[in-house]
Amino acid sequence: MAxxxxxxxxxxxxxxxxxxxxxxxxxxxxMQSVGQAWLVLELTNSPFKLGLIGTLQFGPFLLFxxxxxxxxxxxxxxxxxxxTQTALMLQAFxxxxxxxxxxxxxxxxxxxACLYGFANSLDMPTRxxxxxxxxxxxxxxxxxxxxxxxxxxARIVGPAAAxxxxxxxxxxxxxxxxxxxxLAVIIALFGMQAEGLPHPRAGSSVLQDIKTxxxxxxxxxxxxxxxxxxxxxxxxxxxxxxxxPLLARDVLGLGAQGFxxxxxxxxxxxxxxxxxxxxLGSRRPRLTALVAAGLVTSATTLSLAALHHYWPAAVALAxxxxxxxxxxxxxxSTIQVTVxxxxxxxxxSIYAFVxxxxxxxxxxxxxxxxxxxxVSAAFAAGGGLGLLCVLALTFWWxxxxxxxxxxxx
Length: 409
Hints:
This protein has helices at 13-44, 47-74, 77-101, 106-134, 140-169, 172-190, 206-219, 221-236, 240-251, 256-278, 287-303, 310-338, 344-373, 375-399. The protein is mainly α.
């Protein structure tokens, strides 16, 4: 039986297996994220040490992602993802054992977070570049949209489940269930037919391969535009892991339940945006839609500086969730379809470097502004700077000879 248009990527057997395994695994990933944050606060009662865990977890992307892209282009992608997913599973089981036995200390969590970051920095570009080999190019946008819907749906279910589990049984079971959830995606990967074999290439060093990928990205105006937009929005705007809890506590006077509801509003908007993308035609959105989504995300973030009541803030966050997914999925699909197959892993590693690498820097920036000038000032600065950058990059693109927004990128 064929799937309808909005789910057409699921007509590809390999993507069906991948989607099913990831759906289970991502719920576990979000459960571990909540459990890990709670564990660090229980061990240290230190917001700074909690932030340091985030830096250790995302920092490896800044150090290792470009090399990871070269590796992704040199080895069979399916086997590499099996290896990274196995490493992430073992990390979860070790953390679970330490928590369950009561021997866990802060340095254990820090070391394991760092190991998680290195494994994930190799996993992300490989997994992203493997998607196009599971489906046809015509169904790539639909596959990315469904992947985004799955990710954000797990972001709603996973934290809620973890909250109930941690409150009753402690953090150990949350980590253990995350480890078990990786079995679903590993089994799915073993059942796939696509291997993601590397393309023939002339002998070259790792540094030469990195240089080739970077020069291609810098020398291809459309790819450079997308990476510029992505870096600006990621750095200044997509810092809701820092800003939403501060909004809930310091501006709206809400407790943990209110914070959870605000995050749910963000997640629901993101799921709606992903499903809307999934119902589009086989081609990716126009460049105008991509830029408009970046403008809406930035402008709505800026508007949160003036909102001091729950319902307007929740609606604004839902709009942000919707527009940010349209923006991110459009960036992803535009780059994947534009780059040649031989460079996809390297260029997607640059994508991961820009997207994930901006997270610790942006979080530090808006956190510092919030501490010195208040939460509203942080929303104003982040949204305002993001808006200016998107407008400036749009102006640069329009100034290029023959540049047009009417055509699809």
